[in-house]
Specification:
The protein is of the alpha+beta class. The chain folds into three domains: 100 residues, Rossmann fold; 70 residues, Dna Ligase, domain 1 (2-Layer Sandwich); 239 residues, D-amino Acid Aminotransferase, Chain A, domain 1 (2-Layer Sandwich). The chain is 34% helix and 26% strand. An eight-stranded antiparallel sheet has the order 13-12-9-10-11-14-21-19, with helices on both faces. A five-stranded parallel sheet has the order 3-2-1-4-5. A hairpin with a 5-residue loop joins strand 9 and strand 10. The radius of gyration is 21 Å and the shape is globular. The termini are far apart. The chain binds adenosine-5'-diphosphate. The site of adenosine-5'-diphosphate has 21 residues, from strand 8, strand 12 and strand 13.
């Protein structure tokens, strides 16, 4: 087992990973930017290295600085968390070249799943259903119109290198399609450095259901059940639950088998997530695989008892998974609220400032993963997530009641947060009935005053 791990990340996920390390007797190395001198992850770690100015490109994304910190500290492995360099195959290769274990899947697997147009083709070969769309990248407008004619409107133009809900454009007619195509390409080029786009049928009001998988270097791949992640704004998740009320035992069997087949097709060897859309008929379609630990991984931990980060670390150290599929039992229900520094009065636009008072909830079944504290300043440089409220209870109704109770206890003063929005969602009859699709939250936010 490793003696020391560097965590190439910040915020709640850096602390989440360090907590796993501490329990495993592994020493931790934090890295921090100028804006994070007073951050909690820096205090939590056994040692910490400064890696550059606030903008991520000069610090958390700066590979030479990260490798220098790893070498100077004697860390044997790097955990990338999520975001930043977590899905960068080049970084995974640089780590290996320096003899530092990258805690994640092999660079080849990241590469295959990272280019979405390639992933679609790989999945089709593996017998996993994908959303009807183009075969690979679309490079000219004639081809684009021919595909549109075949599959019909509405369509989505998606950046092949995309992520975080960016580089996706909808088109409901031919005129819209040409404009969407141009816009998606320029946005993709600016955001991801690649203008490559592909086209997919736009499914109306589907559910976003994803399956957590784990693989090791001995050919074992298992799944840990599904998560319901339909509550999104700007194609980004705000509240998730596990399991999903919209997945019956038959669908569960099919969708989890498809996720395992998807992971096996790319020799997957770490924690990963296969994302699917499920339409109103219960048909499911693969949209992408995230080759890293996800923000919402704890709700799966709560219903399975598996520590996903510890399994990642064990697998990276060359150990087999500690679980076989038959060991995995789903128990109870879990809900995650992503508490963000966003202003509910301004359509959840990012809010910054200093947290003046911070009192997290507690009590039975409540877990808070956060790096917030009274006095901490939320800056505009990184994502707006400040805490994850994670609640477990014996069934869905009890989990909703408990989440409401925990939200009632939560106090964050000094900045605007998404806290009131979570309460409004949880008390809504559509949410209670499990009828919230990927289009629900934006429509709700447009009408509600929180
Ligand atoms: P990203 O990698 O940027 O997160 P995804 O491919 O995972 O992009 O899509 C993000 C979200 O966009 C999905 O959860 C879903 O809400 C919506 N979406 C993506 N593809 C489709 C589609 N074909 N039809 C309808 N909605 C879609």
């Amino acid at each position: 087992m490793f003696h020391k791990i560097l965590i190439a990340n910040r915020g709640e996920i850096a602390i989440r990973i360090m907590r796993a390390c501490r329990e495993m007797g592994i020493r931790t190395v934090a890295v921090y930017s100028e804006a994070d001198r007073d951050a909690l992850h820096v205090r939590y770690a056994d040692e910490a290295y400064y890696i550059g100015p606030a903008p991520a490109a000069q610090s958390y994304l700066h590979i030479p600085h990260l490798i220098s910190a790893a070498v100077a500290s004697g860390a044997e492995a790097i955990h990338p968390g999520y975001g930043f360099l977590a899905e960068n195959p080049f970084f995974a290769r640089v780590c290996e070249a320096w003899g530092i274990k990258f805690i994640g899947p092999k660079a080849e697997a990241i590469e295959k799943m990272g280019v979405k147009a390639v992933a679609r083709t790989e999945m089709q070969k593996a017998g996993v259903p994908v959303v009807p769309g183009s075969e690979g990248i679309v490079t000219d407008s004639e081809e684009l119109l021919a595909i549109a004619h075949d599959i019909g409107y509405p369509l989505l133009v998606k950046a092949s290198a995309g992520g975080g809900g960016r580089g996706i454009r909808i088109a409901r007619s031919e005129e819209e399609l040409m404009a969407a195509w141009e816009k998606a390409q320029s946005e993709a080029k600016a955001t991801f450095g690649s203008a490559e786009v592909y086209v997919e049928k736009y499914l109306e009001a589907p559910h976003h259901i994803e399956v957590q998988v784990l693989g090791d270097n001995f050919g074992n791949v298992i799944h840990l059940g599904e998560r319901e992640c339909s509550l999104q704004r700007r194609r980004q998740k705000l509240l998730e639950e596990a399991p999903s009320v919209n997945v019956d035992p038959t669908l569960r069997e099919q969708i989890t088998a498809a996720a395992v087949a998807a992971a096996q097709a790319v020799n997957y060897t770490s924690a990963g997530t296969c994302e699917f859309l499920v339409d109103h008929l219960g048909h499911f379609y693969f949209i992408e695989m995230n080759t890293r630990v996800q923000v919402e991984h704890p709700i799966t931990e709560l219903i399975t008892g598996v520590d996903i980060v510890k399994e990642q670390i064990r697998v990276a150290a060359g150990q087999p998974l500690r679980y076989k599929q038959e060991d995995i039992q789903i128990r109870g229900h879990a809900i995650e609220c992503r508490i963000t520094a966003e202003d509910p009065d301004k359509g959840l636009l990012p809010a910054i400032g200093q947290i003046s008072a911070y009192e997290p909830p507690g009590g039975p079944g409540v877990r808070v993963d956060s790096a917030a504290y009274a006095g901490f300043t939320v800056t505009p440089y990184y994502d707006s997530l400040i805490a994850k409220l994670l609640v477990w209870a014996e069934d869905r109704d009890a989990a909703i009641a408990r989440t409401m109770r925990a939200l009632h206890e939560y106090r964050i003063d000094g900045i605007k947060t998404s806290l009131p929005v979570h309460e409004r969602i949880l008390e809504h009859p559509d949410f209670r009935a499990g009828q919230t699709t990927t289009e629900w939250l934006e429509a709700f936010l447009a009408t509600v005053k929180v």
